[in-house]
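assembly run, all chains below
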Amino acid sequence: MPLITYQTLHPGLSIDCVIFGFYQKEIKVLVLKLKNFEKWSLPGGFVDQTKDVDDEATNILKRRTGLKNVFLRQFHLFGDVKRNSDAHINALFNSKIIDNDSLIWFKQRFVTVGYYALIPFSPSQIFTPDNLSESCEWRSLKDIPEMILDHKEIIDSAHKTLKKELNYQPIGLNLLPEQFTMSELQAVYETILEKPLDRRNFRRKILNFAMLIPTKKQRVGGAYRSPYLYQFDLDKYHLALQNGLSSGW
Amino acid sequence: MPLITYQTLHPGLSIDCVIFGFYQKEIKVLVLKLKNFEKWSLPGGFVDQTKDVDDEATNILKRRTGLKNVFLRQFHLFGDVKRNSDAHINALFNSKIIDNDSLIWFKQRFVTVGYYALIPFSPSQIFTPDNLSESCEWRSLKDIPEMILDHKEIIDSAHKTLKKELNYQPIGLNLLPEQFTMSELQAVYETILEKPLDRRNFRRKILNFAMLIPTKKQRVGGAYRSPYLYQFDLDKYHLALQNGLSSGW
DNA sequence: ACAAAAGTGTTATTTCTACACCCATGC
DNA sequence: GCATGGGTGTAGAAATAACACTTTTGT
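ok done. output:
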């Protein structure tokens, strides 16, 4: 039996997901390692003819990583001819990742739709990769392993999109624990933007968005002075996600 | 001979272009009317397997409307299942727009990539529609005729994207003649944003972008006081297109 | 005591918003 | 002369950018 029932799939169309996490002042990206293959890949897959593409993105992510209920944002269609590579497919075939029946499917020219999402990171998190994949790991954006096809460019494009979106949309809800310190939130911004921000100005600007609820609690146990904890006002956060932040015109 | 050599086309993938123009304080959209068919459509088409999707968008636009050298921006992939409609394809078949050989091609499930562009409007402009189409016309965004499939939603989505892009990118170069008055530029913004702007504040803000060159000339012949003419500083305009305008963080 | 992170406020500059009067032109 | 659109400035409010000292805590 072939790996996939190709008859029901949308031909020449794939989906790739760039899943961002955040840990210790680094942006992490979720990548999969195929069995018997030296390169890594994004969690991706194909589109069932009977399902909406956006829904399939969610389904694929779940199938390949075990992640559920992730809100994915479509950001670009990658449609260059040269993104396909016969050499790559042959290598997959030689590594027995693709069987004979599947070869004709994989040798098609593919275009792929990129989706990205931000999810909570936990270093001990266990993913349940599909049985094609040997492992599913977080890797630092600065330290992405060798990726198949144009997956590195897809990651870079997603990061660029995210940087831009930061100007219109709130961020952090999915990247941080429920309660977090101002410094932690600032670190998220600094990391994504790849530049340092002034502590006092950051605090003022973020608080002006009126999306944060200061709790009177403080982070216990850490070294040095205990910082205050904040949490998001979920209503206002989601409202801002929909309407965007102050925009200009 | 079938209309298209389907063997060389990427299956299940189409492109639709939303071409915006601007005239008399209205946003115009370029739409095509098929022969023997009561509904209108966006200029769109299929993707050759051997060509980049982005390039094919330009090619398709030229083929269907005669427009050359238009810079198209990809903005969304429309991939819902329900956007396809057997009834629609049957209607096209009954109207002899699709022949027997083509039917199997058109009955596929399609996803479509949306592109948009802003081009100069001239009321007397002659388009050279392909021979499937009866005419190619500018229609007001407020007065879009009945469109096939989800083309109306594609137009609305493009407009929404454009509104958002206005905060990051300069606009007007392709929509206005080489020299234009401040009021004309303001009208472009007001029309796209669908809201009035203060004349003096608009002027100040736009001039702060440092993309406009004031000519000392004035528009001749018009009624009432003669306005000054401006033109874009092309270098700075294109720089701003690439880098975006002031963004926030 | 000291090293490291956290809390906090002011000032100067820039940007934003709201608003009104006079000018040029064609009729 | 009048209707219409075009040109221009200011004052108050808000946002931004730059900047330093004190407090808490663990070692």
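Residues 151-165 of chain B form the longest helix (15 residues).

Residues 21 and 28 of chain B are 5 Å apart (CA to CA).

not gonna interpret more than that til we talk
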